[in-house]
Design goal:
The chain has one helix and 19 strands. By secondary structure, it is an all-beta fold. The protein has a domain at 49-172: Macroglobulin (MG2) domain (Immunoglobulin-like), CATH 2.60.40. Bound molecules: copper (II) ion.
């Protein structure tokens, strides 16, 4: 009933991954704490590595902004594409020893997830490359339009402290006119499906988002699990493509999570601003992506999740 209470109650058990670094205050030195040279030498280093969980020194860096983190580096074999051409894209994730990592802990049934978005947040793709030996990953990719793209890998190398989202820029030459970010809309249409978004994003707080899938005006109640969930939500921040991978509340087969039409997510975004949300869901044996623009920090943009329709209940507790 009371949304605020509910959010509070859920906030503890959250599995929201903002680059997997939540609560670990590292790397992100406060911008104000400058003085690179001279003066107080020797700080910095001590702050790294320790990574006190829950430490509140500095803001954790969102995922996807770094090509290298904790000694692990995303190494693309190519950084240029020709737009519209099917291209064999190969890459490695190199470990602290400089060699390609071969041991990965699966995340949602896959050892590596590759997410692609054009820098203007268009052209989203979620792919699963195959390991072709020696830690080399390969996947056939088409970058449909010219422009700069961000390639993200979601991985948990064996031995790494945490899940990592490493990101690199990849370039497709030619006419790179950008696509303006679409306006916020409650409803996204994809391939005959309609997905309705309820909820809003509040910076620095856990927010509930409910995505409801329908087809031909009928609620879809037989969503199929895709990578161990009824939906996967990626959020990218407009401006720098900070990466947020959110998972739904409940899992297929847990005895309480329904196969639609509603998929509920709990997400926390680190700042106000515009985000593009990409929902992957599976129905009829096919995975589709519904996309939304959401402004965090202005609740007026998207209505709150449906509670009681009547406005008359002003109970005090
Ligand atoms: Cu994936």
């Amino acid at each position: 009933m009371n949304t605020a209470t509910k959010l509070g109650a859920y906030a503890l058990g959250l599995a929201v991954v903002f680059g997997g670094a939540a609560g670990i205050g590292k790397v992100a030195g406060p911008v104000g704490a400058t003085a690179d040279t001279g003066g107080h030498g020797g700080h910095g280093g001590g702050e790294h590595g320790g990574g006190k969980p829950g430490g509140d020194t500095g803001t954790p860096v969102p995922g996807g902004l770094q090509i290298s983190q904790d000694g692990y580096t995303l190494v693309p074999r190519r950084t240029t594409f020709r737009p519209g051409e099917l291209t064999d894209f190969r890459f490695t994730v190199n470990g602290p020893d400089g060699k390609p990592v071969t041991g990965f802990t699966p995340l949602h049934g896959k050892r590596l997830h590759l997410i692609i978005a054009r820098r203007d947040l268009s052209g989203f793709q979620h792919l699963h490359p195959a390991e072709v030996g020696g830690g080399v990953w390969a996947v056939a990719v088409v970058l449909p339009k010219a422009g700069t793209y961000r390639f993200f890998t979601d991985v948990q190398p064996e031995g790494a402290k945490q899940q990592l989202t490493l990101g690199a820029d990849i370039f497709a030459g030619g006419d790179d006119r950008f696509t303006p970010l679409p306006k916020p809309e409650q409803v996204a249409k994809v391939d005959g499906y309609e997905v309705r978004l309820a909820g809003s994003l509040a910076p620095g707080r856990t927010s509930k988002l409910v995505l409801s899938v329908s087809k031909d005006g009928e609620p879809v109640t037989d969503l199929q699990p895709y990578l161990e969930a009824y939906g996967h939500l990626v959020a990218l921040r407009n401006g720098d493509l900070a990466y947020l991978h959110v998972h739904p509340d409940g899992e297929p087969g847990d005895g309480k999570t329904k196969a639609g039409p509603d998929i509920t997510f709990y997400a926390e975004v680190p700042s106000a601003g515009a985000y593009r949300l990409y929902l992957d869901f599976q129905h009829g044996g096919k995975v589709r992506t519904a996309e939304f623009t959401v402004h965090a920090g202005s609740a007026a943009q998207v209505p709150a999740p449906a509670k009681e329709p009547e406005e008359g209940h002003n109970h005090t507790h």
